[in-house]
Amino acid sequence: MSGEANKGADIFSTLELDTIGEIMNISMGSAATAASTLLDNKVTITTPVVNVIPLEEFEIKLFEPAVAVQIKYVEGISGSNILILRQGDVRTILAQMMMTEIPDDYQIDEMGESAMCELMNQMMGSSATVLSCFLGRAINISTPISLPIGELDDFKAEHFPGSSSILTIKFTITIKGIMESEFVSVMEIPLAKEIIDVSLNFDADSPDSSAPSPLAPQPEPQPEVPHMPTASQIPPEMPAAMGGQQPMAQQPYPQQPYPQQPYPPQQPYPPQQPYPPQGYPQYPPQGYAPAPTPVPENPIMIKEYSYGDFASPGSVQEVPANIDLVMNVPVVVTVELGRTKRKIKEILEFGQGTIVELDKQAGSQVDVIVNGQLIAHGDVVVVDDNFSIRITEILKSRDSLTML
Questions:
Q1: CATH number of residue 370's parent domain
Q2: pLDDT digits (tens, 9 = 90+) for 311-330
Q3: CA angle (78, 82, 84) in 5-degree steps
Q4: Residue 279 forms part of a structural domain
Q5: Are 35 and 173 in contact (CB under 8 A)?
Q6: What is the pTM of this model?
Q7: Can you say whether the dihedral through the CA atoms of 196, 198, 199, 202 is positive or negative?
Q8: Domains in the chain: how many in total?
Q9: Are 93 and 119 in contact (CB under 8 A)?
Q10: pLDDT value at 53 more than 60
Q11: Same-domain status, 179 and 39
């Protein structure tokens, strides 16, 4: 797990570095599962590379411009873990979360920071759950917060005060079909030591090393069997208090042969009652046919129905075979706005600008007439600067005759 040469080999042994790397690898695998649910895509986090380096040699040039998220452990273990990611990777992750495209010049705003912190909260919460199983204690984290990275020296002095060395774990993160990149987890040395010590000395650090594991199945308690005292354990005054009787357990059972008696003559057994007893549903025995259904006294008379001859004239209205001959015959469709009656004298007085009042009010439906036959009503609409009719009612032949 350690991979590169480690300048802090005097702080941790190879076994300890492999231990912390394996623990963080499994816990980050659980975090990847939580991220897969939020991003609706497969996420894998693998290949941890563990290093202990002096604080002054810590650099983030490979991640600039970088984004940092801090996670504090508040129960079970104490310390902080800072995740440092590339700003471009964060932009890709936010675009996947919000189901939208984000431009390359996007600067992470308050909404972006809130979404990123929520993703880290779900991921590291799942990671803390797995860490609890390894350490055998409840592990809780605080809400992740986004940390601005300005001057790196000021950042290290603010978040790693009094530390001469830090533990870094570099991971490879892959979002299927979208990105493959790296991020680094920076951990304080005391926090890493606490995780390693508890995991390697789990039995010694347990509150009760003799107590069985809560994950192991517990044996069921056996009922206590009362102990029968022997004759030597019975005080001499107890038989007197019992009326001079000795306990039955101390008396050997006499082995006497039973006198053989002639067997009484066998009596016929009473008829057996069907099973199950009364009150339970009765089921027919397997292999037997059900009892025949009783025939009613007045049987129903069923007569055979005689179907009509569908080929007879008038039974089915067939479409004439020569209907296509009249399908292309043109007809005249007229839309009538209204009508009125005027005398010839009034018509001769018509001129430009004369207003003729019709027998319909404004907004009334117009009549659709085909070859002088009223067939429908409709509303006047405008389609592409042309007047058109939207049919609202189709009339029956009898109605159209009365309305004309």
A1: 2.30.330.10
A2: 555 555 565 667 777 788 88
A3: 170
A4: no
A5: no
A6: 0.49
A7: positive
A8: 2
A9: yes
A10: yes
A11: yes
CA 355, CA 361: separation in Å to the nearest integer? Answer: 15
- Residue 282 in tokens: 């009765």
Chain centre to alpha carbon of residue 14:
42
Backbone conformation region of residue 158, classed left if phi is above 0, alpha if psi is from -120 to 50, else beta:
alpha
What is the C-alpha separation between 144 and 81, in angstroms, rounded?
Answer: 10
Are both 172 and 27 inside the same structural domain?
yes
Residues 6+ apart with CB under 8 A from 48: 1, 21, 24, 25, 28, 169, 170, 171
Confidence bin at 110 (pLDDT 50/70/90): confident
Beta pairing class for 66-75 and 145-147: antiparallel
CATH number of the domain within which 99 lies: 3.40.1550.10
Mean local confidence (pLDDT), 86-107: 83
Tokens for 277?
């007893």
Q: Which of 143, 174, 203 is the last residue of a domain?
A: 203
d(CA 128, CA 79): 13
Domain membership of residue 266 (yes or no) is no
User: How many of the other CB atoms lie within 10 Å of CB of 13?
Assistant: 11
Residue 84, Cβ density class (10 Å: 0-12 exposed, 13-18 middle, ≥19 buried): buried
Q: Which domain holds residue 375?
A: 330-403
Q: What is the largest CA-CA distance in the chain?
A: 152
Within a domain: 83: yes
Domain match, 165 and 28 both: yes
Q: Which of 246-250, 325-329, 368-372 has the weakest average pLDDT?
A: 246-250
The token duo for 268 is 């016929």
pLDDT at 317: 56
Find tokens 């010694």 and name the residue: 204
Last residue of a domain, one of 153, 188, 203: 203
44 to 29, 36, 174, 185, 299: CA distances (angstroms): 7, 8, 5, 16, 77
Question: CA 97 to CA 94: how far, in whole Å?
Answer: 5
Q: Do the domain assignments include residue 286? A: no
